[in-house]
Structure formats: C-alpha cells, structure tokens
Write a structure and sequence with these properties.
heterodimer; A: 113 residues; mainly beta; Immunoglobulin-like; 4-stranded antiparallel sheet; B: 58% strand
C-alpha cells in the first residue's frame, strides 16, 4: 500500500493567479497520476508524471496551463496556472501498481473567484 | 460517450437494506476497480477484479465481474450510514488506458 499526503487540502484563489499542489508518497513509485474532478463529475486524467521525464498530458490539457514537476520517486507537484473560475475543481494525485490508480491523496478543493 | 456507465446515478436507501450498483462497459475489461469517495475527500480503493466470474468481498461489500468481463456489480448487504458516499468503478483496457465510471451517489437514511 501507499500513503499520499496532498496539500493544500483547499484554497480560494483569485482569477489570473497560480496554485501549486504538492503530493508526497511514503514509498517510491514510478508513475504518479493527476486527476481533476469537476463538481458532480467523475475523474478526468490530466497527466501522468514519471520521474526523470516530461509528463504525459491527456487531450485537452497542456503543459503551459498545468505544469508538473517530478523531481524524485516520492514527490510531485501540479500547478494550475492563470486560473479562471472554470478551474474550480477537486484535484487529486494518485499512484498504483501496474499503471492503475489505486491510492489517492485526499484531494485539493480549489475555488477560483 | 462514456466508457464506463454506472447505474443508478444516485441511490437513497433505508439503513439495513441491501443495494446493488452496476458498472458496464461496451468492451472487455482487463481489470475492474471499485472505489468509494466521501464528500470532498480522495478515493478509497475497495477491491479489484481481474478474472471473468471473479467475486470478492470485504466486510459487507461484495463485488463481482461477469464472465465476459464487461460488467461488474457492487452489492452492499445491510447498509449502514457509514456506507454513504460516491462509488466509482474504474477499469483498464487495452493500451493501458484507464477510465473511471460515471459514479453512483449513495445516501443511507438512518
């Protein structure tokens, strides 16, 4: 199993600013996943972050808007840049064996005014 | 179109009642995962099914994967308020694509 510490747990931000979300895992993992969950919706994969290489972004998500860092095998950050109210969501990081998301952080609830 | 359809979308049951949530795919699944999400929190992994016909149980929650590996059901026996939350199925298919279901919101009335 893996335990993920994600912070901040929630934030309220002004339009046009950026927020960086951090995830710390208690064990070394190859792949980390970043998800977005819009109100009342299921999870949508933003990107997959591998240590030592560029993150792989899903259709509809770009690096300029959601830059990701993966400096080592236990840590990753996701930045939501130049925020607008449409970015208000829950953001979740996840890890898991064999490339499937099994363990999740508690989530970051973001509200953009 | 949704890759994984869950039904029902929401469910309200009286405490002590049994309930079933379904997760259906139009394509064969390589692995089927069930999660529970409390309001505003991360997802908690419940169980994973891989083989056609497989069934797993954890406390009062039982999940089954059909023989064709295209449908799974999650059954809760004698529901309790602690079972309330959003249940999500997730699955990986060919090409290492992982999808989440549309979600089922469960309310248990004491």
């Amino acid at each position: 199993s893996a335990v993920i510490s994600q912070k901040p747990s929630r934030d309220i931000c002004q339009r046009g600013t950026s927020l960086t979300i951090q995830c710390q895992v208690d064990s070394q993992v190859t792949m980390m996943f970043w998800y977005r969950q819009q109100p009342g919706q299921s999870l949508t994969l933003i990107a997959t972050a591998n240590q030592g290489s560029e993150a792989t972004y899903e259709s509809g998500f770009v690096i300029d808007k959601f830059p990701i860092s993966r400096p080592n095998l236990t840590f990753s950050t996701l930045t939501v840049s130049n925020m607008s109210p449409e970015d208000s969501s829950i953001y979740l990081c996840s890890v898991g064996p064999q490339g499937a998301p099994v363990y999740f952080g508690a989530g970051t609830r973001l509200s953009v005014l | 179109s949704q890759e994984l359809e869950q039904s029902p979308q929401s469910l309200i049951v009286q405490e002590g009642k049994n309930l079933t949530i379904n997760c259906t795919s139009s394509k064969t699944l390589y692995g089927l995962y069930w999660y529970k999400q409390k309001y505003g929190e991360g997802l908690i992994f419940l169980m994973m099914l891989q083989k056609g016909g497989e069934e797993k149980s954890h406390e009062k929650i039982t999940a089954k994967l059909d023989e064709k590996k295209q449908q799974s059901s999650l059954h809760i026996t004698a529901s309790q308020p602690s079972h309330a939350g959003i249940y999500l199925c997730g699955a990986d298919r060919a090409g290492n694509q992982f999808y989440f279901g549309t979600g089922t919101s469960l309310t248990v009335i004491p």
